[in-house]
TrEMBL record:
It is a multi-pass membrane protein. It comes from Streptomyces fimbriatus. The keyword Transferase does not apply. This is MFS transporter. It is found in: Cell membrane.
């Protein structure tokens, strides 16, 4: 591991909370695609499978910011454990209902309950921010976390799809639930590195989403999430049309591998200039990278195209987290990070649902039109809201202090 990454773990407790965060985030890459695989295996209905995956994402979009807002007020341990128990109970209900061919409405109810799952990635980033705020190491820490996210997306779909196709249909979502339980309860047992809560009377009231800059980030990532959701569902269907459904996990892992490699390199770099310009460039690169998917005709070419497409993901996400630091008050940092995850979740819901119906109606190749259109929408929203990203949040202590902190993080 390069020395800047090794230096992150000099802080006591950092290795333990990072390991717990890795386990706790595995369900992010396993549950949705696991449900798609499970339902398509049991019923052959991709429309239903995509809609159920979308329900999980939408429920997480509604519950996630509220859970994180409570975390900012009362602390991670007091909030994450009961929220996780609700999610685990709903996951057990989903597996039982699917196995015994229960009614569709019961599947949707259970998927809505799964959406109470906390945003573990935001919890880990908040711990890094508490350790390294205002230092160059925070940029490296955010880069490391993006690499961890992509490692989850490399191995998560392989494990989830592989287990559900080779063992029994419910195996993927079942293991995802186990990872969630172990990760969250291990993380919340680590009190020494838990960020200090900020009771409501010390927050100044309101929600982090009042920030104009955060609104732009969230809106853009709704469209970006649609890219991710559509690519997942369409790739599974495309692999099945090619006669190699299990290969979808490998192809999606290559997609994540491209992002992982780019994120690892990005974390070693320091940049001059405004972060919002790099962010907009990243959004544009993600959109352009969707165009080749419309032209691929077999799985090897699809894997190459997705690897190239993945190169722009982690750098864009890393820059997004730095922008959140500038546009959201510190007492609402976890909530602010979760709102971006919420935008992604809403987009994943829309993308996976629309892609599922397009696949049922016109086939998998036509389904790749969904991420292409979503990319174009992300670029449009990014350009329209670009000026708002130049104004840091007043609650962050004033523009002079913010730009000074920003230069510390991004200038070599």
């Amino acid at each position: 591991m390069p020395s800047p990454y090794r230096a992150l773990f000099a802080a006591p407790g950092s290795k333990a909370f990072s390991a717990a965060g890795f386990l706790g985030r595995m369900p992010l890459s396993m549950m949705g695609i696991g449900v798609v695989t499970m339902i398509s295996q049991l019923t052959g209905r991709y429309g239903l499978a995509g809609a159920l995956s979308a329900t999980i994402a939408l429920a997480a979009a509604v519950a996630g910011p509220q859970v994180s807002r409570l975390v900012d007020q009362y602390g991670q341990r007091r909030v994450l454990r009961p929220a996780t128990l609700i999610s685990l109970t709903a996951a057990a209900g989903l597996l039982f209902t699917a196995h015994y061919d229960g009614p569709d409405w019961a599947l949707f109810v259970c998927c809505a309950g799964i959406g109470c799952v906390p945003s573990v990635g935001a919890m880990i980033r908040a711990r890094w921010a508490a350790l390294y705020r205002g230092t160059p190491r925070l940029h490296t820490a955010y880069s490391f976390e993006s690499v961890v996210d992509e490692i989850c997306f490399i191995f998560g779909p392989i494990i989830s799809i592989g287990l559900s196709t080779a063992w029994f249909p419910e195996a993927g979502p079942l293991l995802a639930a186990c990872f969630l339980a172990v990760g969250v309860f291990w993380l919340t047992a680590q009190r020494a590195t838990e960020p200090e809560p900020h009771p409501r009377e010390h927050k100044g009231g309101g929600t982090a989403l009042r920030s104009a800059g955060l609104q732009v980030l969230v809106a853009t990532f709704v469209a970006t999430g649609a890219i991710f959701g559509a690519v997942d569902v369409v790739t599974v269907a495309f692999a099945e049309e090619e006669g190699h459904k299990a290969a979808a996990s490998v192809v999606l892992a290559v997609y994540a591998l491209g992002s992982c490699a780019a994120g690892a390199v990005f974390g070693l770099l320091r940049f001059a200039g405004a972060a919002e310009r790099r962010w907009l460039l990243g959004v544009c690169a993600m959109a352009v990278s969707m165009i080749p998917l419309l032209l691929v005709g077999n799985l090897p070419f699809l894997a190459v195209a997705l690897f190239v497409a993945g190169l722009s993901i982690a750098p864009t996400m890393i820059t997004t987290m730095s922008l959140i630091e500038e546009h959201v008050p510190r007492a609402q940092l976890t909530e602010g990070m979760t709102w971006v995850s919420t935008g992604l979740a809403v987009g994943v819901a829309l993308g996976s649902s629309v892609a599922g119906w397009v696949i049922d109606a016109a086939g998998a190749r036509a389904g790749y039109g969904v991420p292409a259109v979503s990319g174009a929408v992300a670029v449009a929203v990014g350009f329209l809201g670009y000026r708002r990203l130049k104004r840091p949040a007043p609650g962050r202590g004033g523009s002079v202090g913010q730009h000074s902190e920003r230069e510390e993080r991004h200038v070599a």
